[in-house]
Amino acid sequence: MDIVSLQQRAREIIEPGAYDYYAGGADDEVTLVENETAWQALRLRPHVLRDVSGVDPSTTVLGQPVRTPVLLAPAAYQRMAHDEGETATARGAAAAGTLMCVSTLATVTLEDVATAAPGAPRWFQLYVRKDRVWTAELIARAKASGYTALVLTVDVPVLGRRRRDEKNKFTLPTGLTMANVGTAPPKVEGSGLAAYADSELDASLTFDDIGWLGGLSGLPVVIKGVLRGDDAVDAVAAGAAGIVVSNHGARQLDTTVTTAFALREVAEAVGDRAEVYVDGGIRRGTDVVKAVALGARAVFIGRPMLWGLANGGAKGVEDVVTELTEEVVRALMLCGAARLDDVGADLLA
């Protein structure tokens, strides 16, 4: 599998405005490029003469077993890539033995996603709306449907300037809605998503809201969108069970630090008080091993998942995860590590 080729084929399949929504970043897209090149710039220092006759890439995330450290990131509007959208992704995740995080802005209801893969682990990504009663009702729906964690996205007090979306006057194609919300983004001169975010999302969120969400749901809360060690420490002190080091796929603030750069600081600041994950620019199994060496328990992939979905539905998603996992196994063997727990900071130059 070649993710670059998958993306090229997906570009031919997906409507141009939808493709730009998935592929694009903020402003000049500097960080979009650097998210990938930062992982490539890291160098491995393999051990030799270790017993790697049996390599096991499995792990746990918040106590849930998964067969791979490659998890599926929350990505909105997946029916733009494939008619079955998030339900196909859920089935692909289940077949690959991994966890899917479902977006608030999915084009399939969170209940239907749960029904598509009833025994698979799943988390729910949350945008908090200004209407806190509506937010509480959404959380109750997620808990009732078997989602086992809330992933609170904290880097969107306002939507980043996504110039491709503005040029395309992006909104959902006719017939698709934000299924958990019941509407589509408005049709406006610029980006309909930006107009929706500005009018509906709550920019008053603080660390105090982590405790509110945990108390409201009874579920562990994972904070997504952290790039600093001090913010990670404050989030954990407020009750977070996990941190996702993320710059939102380079879609919010251009020229931020890359996630590969930020990960070590966050992991060292948090220590063993919470689990740390990372997303952004991960395209190879060696990237996954590097992330683990820097302190991540697992990684999330977004765009590769979407390219797999566009090319082959559930099977396409499964194939992307399976291929990356096979690359992880090969990289572990060549680094002299039989398990993820054997991967330490000493593997990085």
Tell me the CATH architecture: Alpha-Beta Barrel
Enumerate the spans where pLDDT stays under 50 for 5 or more consecutive residues.
none
Number of domains: 1
Given this structure, which CATH class is correct? Alpha Beta
Structural class: alpha/beta
Share of residues in strands: 5-15%
Give a structural overview.
Helix 1 packs antiparallel against helix 13 and helix 10 packs across helix 11. With 349 residues, this protein is an alpha/beta fold. It has a single domain, classed as Alpha-Beta Barrel (TIM Barrel), CATH 3.20.20.70. Helices cover 43% and strands 11% of the residues. The strands form 2 sheets. Strands 3-10-9-8-7-6-5-4 form an 8-stranded parallel sheet. The mean pLDDT is 95. The chain has 13 helices and 10 strands. The longest helix is centred in the C-terminal third of the chain and has 33 residues.
Features:
349 residues, TIM Barrel, 8-stranded parallel beta sheet, 13 helices, 11% strand
Summarize the structure.
With 349 residues, this protein is an alpha/beta fold. Helices cover 43% and strands 11% of the residues. α1 runs antiparallel to α13 (303-335), α4 (85-96) runs parallel beside α5 (110-116) and α10 (229-237) packs across α11.
Give the helix/strand layout:
Blueprint: H1 3-13, H2 16-23, H3 30-41, E1 59-61, E2 64-66, E3 70-72, H4 85-96, E4 100-102, H5 110-116, E5 122-126, H6 132-144, E6 150-153, H7 163-168, H8 192-200, H9 208-217, E7 221-226, H10 229-237, E8 242-245, H11 259-270, E9 275-278, H12 285-293, E10 298-301, H13 303-335
Parallel strand pairs: 3-10, 4-5, 5-6, 6-7, 7-8, 8-9, 9-10
Antiparallel strand pairs: 1-2
Helix pairs in contact: 1-13, 4-5, 4-13, 10-11, 12-13
